[in-house]
Protein 1
Amino acid sequence: MSAKSFWNKCRVSGIAQTGEEFLKFVGPGLLVTVGFIDPGNWAANLAAGAEYGYALLWMVSLSTFMLIVLQHNAAHLGIVTGKCMAEAITEYFPCGIGRAVLLTALGASAMTSMAEILGGAIALRMLFSIPLPVGATLTALLSAALLLCNTYSKVEKWIIGFVSLIGIAFLYELWLVPGGWGAQAAVGWVVPQFPQGSMLVIMSVLGAVVMPHNLFLHSEIIQSRQWHLKGASFIKKRLDFEFFDTLFAMMVGWAINSAMVILAAAVFWTAGEHVTELEQARDLLRPLLGDSASVIFALALLFAGVASSVTSGMAGGIMTSGMAGEPYNTKDKHTITGIVGSLGCGLVLIWLTSDPFEGLLFSQMALSVQLPITMVSLVALTSSPKVMGVYANGKGTKLLLYTLTGIVTALNVMLLYSVLR
């Protein structure tokens, strides 16, 4: 049978149509996955592997599971209601509570912007010896220009593609690492461990994976397609396809994050080498890329920094436009205020930071501290029949979501105890 005949037969059977339909709706999850390999993730994973070996891989697994559940829930909100999370909070929450939630989320967006811009600045320092404050300013201005001029969409696929290649490089390097790590990693993925002094890094890994601003971003990307206007049967199909899009994208992120931790453990932890700066991560690429590792790493970090700075700035615009009860629109003053505010505050925080690597870790920790507020807000919205109608969360889903919220809250309490002790 020829390839054409086989394809036609598949088309008749409905398999091809399903595949074609699914490909039309793949994308939002992959865009969110850019956050999996942003500079904050690189720093958190590098610290986890270098300082504690394979012991903190369980947090990568737990964070990814949380992210799948939460991103799926946030996407449901956008598909069913046609509103992003910020708009829904403004419409359905009491005014004071809604503003408080969105202001804390905006603060988390600024902390995210700090990490992303800082990554770009470190890359510029590695490539051209540009001072960190100057590099940070250039990165922030470029990201703002791409957003406000709506030119980012033209380079988005190239940026995601390049950063994805670096992610693949990390995965491929696992084959180059000497044997023996498999058994330790297998235990680390599933057995929770809390080595002495590790709570800051644990919470940094959590914040680096389950970023609050990404929940707002995912709901905005989904709702902008206005699928809720096409009827119940269409919504049902979109919900099914969205789950597989989210699951696939998040598992890719889990694999890349795990690879970073494992490589850091194999290169630094086994040698007893202490890591104090992000530039040391370029050593992870030397077995694959040789002496060009420094340039390739810096370019990847630059692209990752710009790409993720754009998404954090976009999230800031989504929140401020949502406060005004308006959709995201880069021509509107409310959206512009959020974009400039998020990137501008992140830039100021960098100017005030004396230790860039510590700054990256603390920024990711701050995200985990705000996370329970965003999680409770999301669950409240998606569990309400008034908001979701027949698509409101069932008892089992609500129990799972509130259990995850309780786990994050408990980890935050443990962090506070470790700091005050």
Protein 2
Amino acid sequence: MFTLVDRAVSMVKAHPDANLSRFSWRSAVRIRRLPWTFKQVERAVYNLLLNACQSARETADRHEVRVRVSGDAHFVSVTIIDSGPGVADGIRESLFDPFVSQGKQRGTD
């Protein structure tokens, strides 16, 4: 999991929306095998990191993204915290529906 998060952080740092963000992260667990494909989890973590960078850019002072990986032999938790303003009330209830984003009502409109 350490390598997966490290790769996702490296990839998102290359994105223009991450150019002002400062990353910090730590891992308390090393997972040898995952029940999903490496690329699927890496892509999910990348998307969450990019969302965090975009949110952190909305603050005037600090653009911070923190990542923490914890777990045991059966469970893994990836926590991503940013210094942004949080999820807008207008999309809070539908945030995990397909194609929802804060910038566009239906994500692709």
Protein 3
Amino acid sequence: MKTQSEKAELFRSLHRGPEILVLPNAWDCASARIFEQAGFPAIATTSAGIAFSLGYSDGQRIPPDLMLAAVARISAAVPLPVTADLESGYGDVAKTTAGLIAAGAVGLNIEDVDHSSQGLTPIRAQVEKIAMIRRIAAGIGVNIVINARTDVFLAQIGEPATRFDRACERLQAYIAAGADCVFLPGLADENIIRRAVETLKFPLNILAGANLPTIPRLCELGVARVSIGSGIMRATLGLTRRIAQELKTSGTYALLEGTLPFGEANALFEK
């Protein structure tokens, strides 16, 4: 069994190839175990998925202690490196970083959205936040992997003509502050993705979705890391809703075909 520090270094090395790092995002222990059994080398969490499962909407509305408790359960359920989506850090970034490490995770996403204003945090303030995460982790002794995210494209901040330069300015500042990977959700155009890879010359995380290039194509474009966000969890909710509608309207069970057998589900947690 690897130590937490060893998991952190393994996770960091996965960002440097030779294969693209594909991270499914778990929202509970069962989904994490399924991703482990599928053969993924590491697992991410989804802040939205965890929040939804516990009765909260996304956007830092879940109490941080609940989020970190869910991360701790997921980290304990699998032997793989786990990285957690911790939104904008829940106010007290130093406390959140210490809580992340205590939860057994070895990486985190940190976004630059200011949830009070729905704008972006000033670059200088975000740089200070990333530097603080690095200092706190170093003081504890676990060199966690920081995935620094900007929502310039996802939130469509600013004029389209200046959006790329604004995003790169932010990400380059985050790299200088100590990020290990940078996250640019909201991109779908191959030319812009390639341009971002060539401009940043640093591990780039793309958020996968139905309209994006395939993972093999993203690898060809030079993307280092692909995550799914809340997509798998929301797909599960979609299936649940369709099953509920079938039961209510026709009283049939056709959509239950393909259900994970009880024995296999139970075996996910048999010691």
